[in-house]
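Field notebook, page 401. I keep forgetting to write these up properly, so this time I am using the form the group agreed on. The chain and the ligand, flavin-adenine dinucleotide, are recorded exactly as supplied. Prediction of the bound pose follows.
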Amino acid sequence: MNSSDFLIIGGGIVGTTISIELRRRYPKSTIAILEKENQLGSHSSTNNSGVIHSGIYYDPDSVKARVCKIGAEKMIDFHEEHNLPLKKLGKILVCTNHDQVSQIDLLLDRAKKNKIEAYEINYEKLKEMEPEVNSIGGRGIYVPITSVGSPKAVMDTINKILLDKNIKIFTNTEIKDKCGPSQVLSKDGSKFNYGFLINTSGSYSDVISNKFDVGQEYTMLPFRGLYWELSNKSGINLNHLIYPVPDLRFPFLGIHTTSSIDGKVYLGPTASFGFGREHYRGTSGINLLDTLNNLKYSGMQFIRNHDGFRNLALQEIFRLSKVGFAKEARKILPNLKYNMLSPSSKAGIRAQIFDKSKGRLVNDFLAVKRDNSLHILNSISPAWTCSFEMSKFICSEYMEA
Ligand SMILES: Cc1cc2nc3c(=O)[nH]c(=O)nc-3n(C[C@H](O)[C@H](O)[C@H](O)COP(=O)(O)OP(=O)(O)OC[C@H]3O[C@@H](n4cnc5c(N)ncnc54)[C@H](O)[C@@H]3O)c2cc1C
């Protein structure tokens, strides 16, 4: 029988950084991570854009705003301390329709409130910084801190740190059920006892939390994030990351460019309907129950049209075709041609929580504590950026007496 003071279900960036924070606070405790795959970080934590976000978007009262600025600084420090590939490119936000022009003021106000360095730029400055980029109305925002890091290298480095800090890692260990007041059961029949359990199982966090009678009002709606690759012969050279001003009612950022550390430029990711919690591409990972659940709640939102969801859904359907995607991307890169885009194998699953009682997608991070268990239910973007600071926040808010 395995026993530990702290037991973490899910070895992504959130579970692993929490375990490092716990080790810092409780040097003598026993800590174990249970991961269903054969290595840590096999899902969102390595299948993402690797953008270290500034925190400019978030409502100043949100947890995201509270942890993103410092989280980004810590993630950049982590890359530098461990010599991991990092590109400090900065981000430029541009308008792709007239409604977004007034949103520039809101974002500048949020930047000020969240204490993030950001500058308004006019058409001349935009063309000087990015000759290939367009902004309707000529207004844009430059955010210097936004960078691109290396999710895979971060995960590999964390793996070594965990071993060094005597944190036990059980891979190929999928938790199926709770089988006692402080005990869980894995698929192969092993039992794990714990003093305190933390559920950081990403796209399965609702399934696990329900075993603890927690979070029945929430359900997971998987959205697929798909990318296209910009041909290196396109002649479109970008100096920064280019993003549209997002619709702040939703936790998605719109089609943007990501100049990754491998030298490639990607466009995306989409927020396409997911047919399963692990439905990355093709038919692999399709799950009937997940599909029906997603259809039910996405359909409900479509009919009710909360926050203009119908428009978002229609846009995403349109972006599924290459023609539709290219048309959308051309709003930021007017010289982009259809044949400059090639399909990319890069894809991720956005583990998006839906609040059934409110009929809305949850925008902020969400954690629920019950007895000796804590459930992190909505570790959506920018949880990778925030992870080191988010872990500190979680331990202080939920785990100190
Ligand atoms: C397309 C895309 C692009 C993104 N881009 C960015 C970005 O640029 N910047 C940013 O900051 N964030 C980004 N994000 C968000 C970021 O990737 C996630 O917020 C973050 O990785 C969440 O980490 P996690 O540890 O909660 O989840 P995960 O990495 O998914 O980890 C959960 C782990 O739990 C394991 N698990 C699940 N069920 C069980 C079980 N029953 N038993 C044992 N183990 C289990 C899984 O195998 C998995 O390893 C992006 C996300 C997507 C999908």
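OBSERVATIONS:
- Residues 116 and 134 are 24 Å apart (CA to CA).
- The chain has one domain: 2-399.
FOLLOW-UP: compare against the apo run.
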